[in-house]
Amino acid sequence: MRIAMISTYLQPCGIATYTENLAAALIAEGHDVLIAAERTDDERDDTQSDLSAAKVARCWHRHNPNTGELRAVLQMWRPDVVHVQHEFGLWPDRSAFIRAIKIIERSCPLFVTPHTICGPEHASLAWIWRQLSRNGARLVVHTDEGLAMLRDVWQYPADMMTRIDHGSLDPAVVAWADRDESREALGLPEDPVVLLSLGFIGEGKRQHATIAALGELVSTGMIDRDEVRFAIVGKPGGGWQHSGEYVAKIKRWIDALGFEDLVDLRTEFVPATDLPTWFAAADCAINLSIPTPLSASGRLRLAASYGCPQIVEAAGLHADMIEAGAVVGVAQRDSAALRDAILEMVRGPEHRQRYARAGATYASATKWATIAGQHIDWYRGKRRINAI
Fold it and tell me: 59-63, 281-285, 352-356, 360-364 — which is least confidently predicted?
């Protein structure tokens, strides 16, 4: 099968990584993949991937309403299906979005993976779902909650949606890094339990909540400050305003608390090639966030693939991983629950090992080879429609 994907591929973002992993799995199964990638000026673009087996054409830009080059690429390649990774995020301009969707629909079947699904508070986005359904777009949705939102709030036709899990790297084939060597390479101390916040740094990621929990644990003597280190690593941003001010606030807070030896703050971009080293060095990853549009987290699944235990907030978005025992879920903004979960991770090596094993089991069950096969069934009309 000839599959064209339209994606932010080659940019340093989760959707680009998702596209790469799905494309690689499809190629491994003998399918041809063309990625119609966004044209950018980011100097890091060409270092993000070694997916040489895919054909890549940079042929559109989200802020350029001209879709002529995209049309030419699709006409030349003649795919059997086109799969758009994301929805409105690729073309904020409404007219460009509509033109692109019509170009695709007229050439071959259209599939869309909405990586975010907004609720009724975003009524202004209703036109997106209307346009997709009118043009016959079949959706790949990652969660049952997303299916319900699309059906009940946006009235998307149930027979045009299916649920397919977000994929995970197969733990049996990933290259595991050595813990001690990873810590040495990253300049982390050898002995303490290392807690890790990896990704964007901003108000919405709530790194301050972990610092507050650690402050309470240390001040009450529940843990010794020399037995734990909290590494906050990533770029300020993630779509939240004033992220630079948030980082400055975190720095002032660290200084005021005298936590220079407890919190390791690194405001730097982490390339995908360095992620295994960070997950090997960490004893537990902490992923907190404000309530967001329904989505599935690739970062959580990646950590699970590398056997890194995790504490997550906004538990409703990660219900499948919590039910599988792959992560520890705490209620949104429940500081006591977060404190207790951290304490158990710091003081319980057997506890960490249990979650590491469960995470790897979960990742194995959702490996990309399995997910790719489910996509092919959906493309061919053979997959059961499991809209709820």
Answer: 59-63
End-to-end CA distance of the chain: 29
Task: Please state the rounded mean pLDDT for residues 280-288.
Answer: 95
For the stretch 325-355, pLDDT in tens is 999 999 888 999 999 999 999 999 999 999 9
Nearest CA to 129 among 141, 166, 22? 141
Listed in order, strand segments (DSSP E) in the chain are 2-7, 32-38, 55-60, 81-85, 110-113, 138-141, 161-163, 193-198, 228-233, 263-266, 284-287, 310-312, 328-329
| 75 vs 52, higher pLDDT | 75
The domain locations on the chain are 2-167+368-379, 179-365
pLDDT exceeds 70 at position 291: no
Is residue 153 helix, strand or coil?
A: coil
**Of 2.40.50.870, 3.40.309.10, 3.40.50.2000, 3.40.50.720, which CATH number belongs to 179-365?**
3.40.50.2000
The CB density around residue 32, as the number of other CB atoms within 10 Å, is 16
Domains 2-167+368-379 and 179-365 agree in fold: yes
Range 2-167+368-379 has CATH code 3.40.50.2000: yes
Tokens representing 83 are: 């799969």
| Number of helices followed by number of strands (H, E) in the chain | 14, 13
